[in-house]
Write a structure and sequence with these properties.
This protein has one domain: TATA-Binding Protein (2-Layer Sandwich). The chain contains 3 helices and 6 strands. The protein is of the alpha+beta class. The radius of gyration is 15 Å and the shape is globular. A 6-stranded antiparallel beta sheet has the order 1-2-6-5-4-3.
Length: 150
Amino acid sequence: MRQAVWCALLAAVVVVLAGCGGGGEKKGETEQPSAAVKSACNGAALAGSEKLKLPPSFPQIEADKLTYTEQSTEGPTNVVEGYFHGDVKEAHNEFKKELEGAGFKILFDELEEHDSEVSWQGEGRTGQVALREECGESDKTYVHITNRPA
């Protein structure tokens, strides 16, 4: 059973890696963010009474740096989205540091110029913090966090 879980996790990492890089933009052409990204980057902060769909000890980055604007459930996976006040590198370093500090195991992390991933495991859950330069501002980074039962 444990081997099957690791195989599934490895397969998920391979799928994520396959989606990274490649293609490149043609000169003068920029990708337009999706409606979901625009909504997450420009939405109002989730109400304080709304319980975040994250593990109980998931790091809570300072409110002046991170704003959660949306959350949903897709099957067994919880998704929380929002934006980080800072660039991709700053957001990547902050999430990685805070996850490690909270006792989460970092399974994989990758930092590229315009995006980043930090995959983690802890509290019986696995997930990923995906960060992308898609909010339309150099100091505002789109945050997409997934977590599911391990």
